[in-house]
# Entry
Amino acid sequence: MIEFINVTKEYSDTQALQNVSFHIDDGEFVFIIGHSGAGKTTLTKRLLREEKVTEGKILVDGIDVTELSARGIPYYRRKLGMVFQDFRLFRDKTAYENIACIMRAVGTPGAEIRRRVPALLRTVAMEDKQKHFPRELSGGEQQRVALARAIANNPDIIIADEPTGNIDPEMSIEIMNLLMKINQILGKTVIVVTHEMDLVERFGHRVITLDGGKLDSDINLESAVADFEDSENTGGENE
# Structure
């Protein structure tokens, strides 16, 4: 579904991404990790088509994102739902309106908006806060609204860029559980960009590691843990 093919991005004399290649299947849950400056933000911006690559290709559902025209970019971005570290909610709109305005922007009929927005807020356990403004919500509550907004237009892919960076550890786990729910129940491809290794290890799944703009490793933690447990069990039986 998503394929990076030898992607390089240069800024002046710096290579922010260097010959990066990987494939993400439809419905996968993937962590992208790395220290500050590793290339995570650059990679995300390429996927959003905020900037062009210097070399290489990015394919999404067979579409070459690197060759999109300015006119085609907004239509391509409808495939994507974004969740940001700083929430990026409209401060002068209620939780309900923050979601509804995104749906209006793509021409969703009013009757469908009135039906779906409360359902979306229920999905993230925020149905009782639909009339609240962002200033009246905690950081975790704002991120829940941001999650509901990200799935409002039924995108294929959810990209969460440091989604737990501005919330407390307990709420971080709840947000990650919601992202898991979006992946497992709604079948969305979910990409979580983070530097929080404790969350990565807690929730497992596939982990793509960037270091200095290069692909450092690509490991499925679930499979690795299962293989380790199998080997431990086998060893115990042999003994």
